Amino acid sequence: MTRRRWIVLGAAALAAVVLLGGGALAVGYALRDRYEVPTADLFGTPTPPPASPSATPSPTPPPGADITGPLNLLIVGVDTREDDPTWEPHADAVTILHVPRGLKTGYLFSLPRDLVVDIPRFPRSGYGAGVPSSPTR
Question: Which residues pair with 77 in a beta bridge?
Fold first, then answer.
């Protein structure tokens, strides 16, 4: 190949990468704006420290200051299906969060939804692909 052809191919590849990257970035921003998940601060908004140190300490501790470990928290995701008024809410995901005494780490344990579901027996289908057949002679 000639040098000119390599330059043209390199420029085309660079343009394709730039276009694909820009498109992926635009799609990412569009999806982020469309599926923004609301969040909540569970421990309250921390108050900023005073501009000058005060002589007397604050009489009330900040929210969450009295929490000690170990902690076990049950976290349940609920499928509400707001678009269907006849839908009854169901537990979507069930996890247990264990926070040890130091409150520095946490461990999530996921409980499968189908853990306590009765699965009925099915009649044999006669499909023998998983069973070795007798050798033919």
Answer: 93
**Low-confidence stretches of the chain (pLDDT beneath 50):** 137
Q: Count other Cβ atoms within 10 Å, centred on residue 97.
A: 13
**Distances from the Cα of 50 to the Cα of 23, 58, 105, angstroms:** 46, 11, 30
Residue 92 phi, psi dihedral angles, 5° rounding: -90, -50
CA-angle at 21, arms to 18 and 24, nearest 5°: 150
State the DSSP string of 52-104: S--SS--SSPPTTTT--S-EEEEEEEEE--TT-TTPPPEEEEEEEEEE-TTSS
Say if residue 99 is exposed, middle or buried (CB neighbours under 10 Å; 0-12, 13-18, 19+).
middle
Q: How far apart are CA 42 and CA 97, in angstroms?
A: 15
* 115 DSSP assignment: G
Residue 137, pLDDT score: 47
Give me the torsion for CA of 16, 19, 20, 22, rounded to 10°. 150
Residue 57 tokens, joined = 């300490």
Q: Report the predicted TM-score, pTM, of the whole model to 2 decimal places.
A: 0.38
